[in-house]
Write a structure and sequence with these properties.
Layout (H helix, E strand, L loop, with lengths): L1 H25 L4 H11 L24 H10 L10 H14 L6
Helix pairs in contact: 3-4
Length: about 100
Amino acid sequence: WYQRRVREWYQRRVRGMTQVVTKPMSFHKPVEKICGDLYKKDAQICDLKYEKQIDLKTVNIKKLKVKDLRKILEQNGQDCKGCSEKSEFVKKVEAIAREQGRTEL
């Protein structure tokens, strides 16, 4: 009995939060305002972050942060042990970009 009540309560809560998020989105309300309203109900909802997708064929590699350069190296099975300057990371990522078919750097 108790588990069923908890499950029902949780389902109502999730359904309610879904409606609170999707309804303002349907009216094209800015994300910042939606998060501000949701913060009152659940502070964690706007803390969700997603990984940035980087397309090596179009991105300006020199403008990427070192964190992003490291992530690209990791995704391609390489590392840059001993790299201390951003330019060293950029050179390695440019080499990966050339391997993947990028012609101009």
